[in-house]
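Worked example 4.2. Below are the chains of a multi-component assembly; read each line carefully before continuing.
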Amino acid sequence: MKTNDLILQTTTKVVLFIIILFSVYIFFAGHYTPGGGFVGGLLTSGAIILLTLAFDMKTVKQILPFNYIYMAATGLLFAGGTAAGSLLFNVPFLTHAFGDVNIPILGETALHTATLFDLGVFLVVVGVTMTIIQTIGVDE
Amino acid sequence: MINFLILPLLIPFLTAILLIFCSKNVVLQRWVAGISAFINVAVAFLLVQKVRNNGIQTLNLSSWEAPFGITLVSDMLSALLVLTTTIIAFACVIYSFKSIGIEREKYFYYPALNFMIVGVIGAFSTGDIFNLFVFFEVLLMSSYVLLVLGGTKIQLRETIKYILVNVISSALFVIAVAYLYSVVGTLNMAHISVRLSELGQSGIITVIAVLFLIIFGLKGGIFPLYFWLPGSYYAPPAPVMALFGALLTKVGVYAIMRTYTLFFIHDTGYTHQLLMILSIITIIVGVVGAIAFSDIKKIIIYNIIVAIGVILFGVSVMTPDSLAGSIFYLIHDMIIKSGLFLLIGIIIAITGTSHLRKFSGLIKRYPGLGWTFFIAALVLAGIPPFSGFVGKVLIVKGGFESEHYWGGAIILGSSLLVLFSVMKIFINGFWGTPQNFAGESKVPVRKLLIAPIILVTISVLYGAGSEFIFPYILQAAETLANPSIYIDAVLKEW
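Applying the procedure described above to all two chains together yields the following structure tokens:
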């Protein structure tokens, strides 16, 4: 049976980018306001799942040829590495650092190592969610 | 270095991540896992020395001060258990090289093992009750992976039961922590202890104490909550069984030890009496199981249950002697149980069966295996001068001193029956006419024997050198007997 999913596919092509942009926004908003790596990661994986629904697993694998298990491991490495960085400075584990840095074009910007930790969380969430979906979503 | 006590936790964590990346290259995985496990033993050893010399170590994570943030606390008890855990992890890793099979190794066996060690060590070293829950989840999550990995029918069946039991007990755990938090308004274990002694033991706190006993009893396998244990621990291959039997149940026992000496000490007439009754029934049930079965895996599994009863009896008596005995016996039991599980793993690999009546005469062809097993059996039953003896003497002495004659007598009787249950394996399996078994020539017995021999040797030395080790045990027991030492170390300026 050939399904008619023209509307879904067309909408997805537009909506996908809006969701991903929103997830990036949520990710950075998480520093002071609700949001962060976990929700951002869920939104991103939501976008990828929408793509999978509209097209199919094969196409999505071609578009995003990631090994999601490695992605989760990379995320763990970011989170663990940021936490373990405190060992180098002999401050208690997980202690974060921040400061204002002058970046060209952007100007004075507040940078915080917690963002790196959050990036790790983001990658873990996307990696794990997509691994689960890919494992249980395939019909053999 | 102020972060020293996190290192035994951090090393397996980073190793696990690294191992995920090299999951395709099995040889590299073995090297990485083996070396990191060995380094971790050394680090844990240094940690014990550090606690011995400088007293209790604490670390306020993220630099949040003690009652507000999460604190890691390494007192002597936790440091000793961390050391024991790393030794067992090392033995199980090197045993896995030759026994677990390349298929499992490719599918994240070593990462899962390392994550489980993270959970176990975390549970031993945290000083925050909610963080304890988190580390329980970490170790459970990885134990699900280890239990189901391989996907044989029995594993799938038992994993479902295991997950169900643990999901329920985790839910109960959160509920109990929420109860406790609503009463005392804090999660830091030292701070909870302070608040509880201000409040005194009201009815609600007794309820919470019993709730905690149910939760940790489910993990630890005390009567009547041990029902899932013989089935689930029967399913996985030997090294996983050794890890589960030696570490997972003991995390539950440790948690009972901690909460019943730090929190719920104001109405011991009720809570500790209950613990004592349950622990004695646990011993009896365990002994009955150990004697009744003629399946070698089942015999050793029921011996776990006996040991849990013995340890918890010592905790429930709550004299300095019995606490020291419990700690001594706890460490003894972790080492020797993992050694025994690895040994029967070899027996099963050779004979292809775990049923006692189906093989005999192993000692003719495998003298090394036979004698190692014989010594392990003596150590387990606590024949002097082996380590089980010292622990049991102290526990029984504590029991008699506080006039719990029945409990002491039952422990003494149980040792004899434990000896009988393991000698049954030795006599039936190792004596008699030698047999030929299909496929036995493929089993690398000598290489497999390395890990159990290490464990049994440590166990023998632990008993023979008990004079030297005893000051460490006493220091651990002192902290348990006087919660104020623990509290002062964590809440420095309170």
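Take a moment to check your reading of the output against the notes. The longest strand of chain B covers residues 57-60. Chain B has 21 helices and two strands.
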